[in-house]
Each structure stands twice: as C-alpha cells, then as structure tokens.
C-alpha cells in the first residue's frame, strides 16, 4: 500500500484532484467526511460535544447543528480549543483505523487532509505528501464564482491558513492547478504515473 497525504489551500482544487485519483483507482479517506462521521449520533465525538457545549447544539433530528456549534465553539479561544480537543483525536483515530485496514494491499490510498502538518506524516504513516497549489488570486476567484462565497469571508479564510510557501515546503510533489479542467486532468495523469511505480 502507498499512503499519500493530499492537501492544499481552500480553493486550490484539492477535492477535484481527489476525485480524479479515485477515478484512476485510488482509495480516498477524506478528513472532512471523517469529521462529519465522528460528530454524527453514536460517533465518538457526539456526546462529548453535547456535554461541553450544551443541548443547544443539537438539531431537531438529533444531529449536531453545525452552525449552532460553530457559533459557540468559535466564540473564543478556550471554546475553540475545547472543540479541537474533542474532535481532532477522534478524527485522527478514525483515519488511522481506515488506513490500517488497507495495510498489506497494493492500493494507492489518498488521505485528504486540509490542514496537513509534519505530525500527520508520522501519526497517519504517510509515505508521500502531495500539495495542490495555485496562486491566491485564482483560489479567491474560485471561492467567489464556484462556491458563491462572500468576498470578505473568502479573503478571511485564505488569510487564516498557513502560507502557500509554508505548505509547499513539506511536499514531495506539488501539483499545479492554476489552469483549466483539461490542464488539471493532465497534471493528475502525471501524478498518477509518478505514484504507481512506488506502490
């Protein structure tokens, strides 16, 4: 098995790259999906979140009301730290279990992790890190046109991330996604051709 970490800034096209790799036969473990799973009813972070933030974060259908949770969890640094202390270990454990279940196979396993750090490389046992990169102005344009985000919100989210330079520094492979869809498909084909011999 070849476990690779896939990361990139908001608007870089990380999800599009993940989808193209899956179409080629890779198996995807998506941190965003795992984050939703661990806070679902019965998930390891569900009850601890309610215990910490109160019944006001529970929607009528029994699920966590994400906007209500965000409103209280991002109110101050202490609350945000509490949210992270509850959710991050649960997400990490779930991702490690999903990865370990594929050990001994000949799959290319893509672990999509938005805020990938050097620590992830160790804990999730990543052999390689691929960074999807594009200029900030292109990422911003995508957030405004494709996701319909408000400019102020989009700019704030981009500013809140680590810099492009910092992200690229930890990469084994940088995939440029500053062009159109056809260019992206060509770039993913080249990435795949680089990965396959390393399985």
Largest sheet: 5 strands, parallel
Low-pLDDT residue spans? none
Beta-strand content estimate: 5-15%
What is the helix content?
40-55%
Put simply, the count of helices is: 10
Shape: globular
Oligomerization state of this entry? single chain
Question: In which order are the strands of the major sheet placed?
Answer: 2-3-1-4-5
Taken in chain order, the helices and strands follow as EHEHHHHEHEHHHEH
Rounded to the nearest angstrom, the radius of gyration is 18 Å
What structural class should be given to the helix and strand makeup?
A: alpha/beta
- Tell me the number of strands: 5
Structural write-up:
The protein is an alpha/beta fold and 199 residues long. 53% of the residues lie in helices and 13% in strands. The protein contains 10 helices and 5 strands; from the N terminus they run βαβααααβαβαααβα. The longest helix is centred in the middle third of the chain and has 24 residues, at 77-100. It starts with a strand and ends with a helix.
Keywords:
199 residues, alpha/beta, globular, 5 strands, 53% helix
Topology (SSEs and partners):
Blueprint: E1 2-8, H1 14-23, E2 27-30, H2 31-38, H3 46-53, H4 66-73, H5 77-100, E3 108-112, H6 118-123, E4 128-133, H7 136-145, H8 151-160, H9 164-169, E5 173-176, H10 181-195
Parallel strand pairs: 1-3, 1-4, 2-3, 4-5
Helix pairs in contact: 2-5, 7-8
């Amino acid at each position: 098995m070849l476990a690779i970490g896939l990361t990139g800034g908001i608007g870089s096209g990380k999800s599009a790259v993940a989808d193209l790799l899956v179409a080629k036969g890779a198996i995807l473990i998506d941190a965003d999906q795992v984050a939703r799973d661990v806070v679902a009813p019965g998930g390891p972070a569900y009850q601890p979140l309610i215990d910490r933030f109160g019944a006001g974060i529970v929607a009528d259908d029994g699920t966590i009301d994400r906007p209500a949770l965000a409103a209280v969890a991002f109110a101050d640094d202490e609350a945000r730290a509490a949210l992270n202390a509850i959710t991050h270990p649960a997400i990490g454990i779930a991702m490690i279990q999903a990865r370990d279940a594929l050990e001994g196979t000949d799959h290319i396993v893509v672990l999509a992790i938005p805020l990938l750090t050097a620590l992830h490389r160790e804990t999730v046992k990543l052999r390689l890190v691929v960074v999807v990169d594009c200029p900030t102005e292109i990422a911003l344009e995508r957030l405004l046109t494709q996701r319909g985000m408000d400019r102020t919100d989009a700019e704030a989210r981009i500013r809140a991330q680590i810099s492009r330079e910092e992200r690229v520094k930890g990469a084994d492979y940088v995939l440029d996604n500053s062009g159109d869809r056809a260019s992206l498909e060509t770039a993913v084909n080249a990435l795949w051709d680089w990965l396959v011999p390393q399985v």
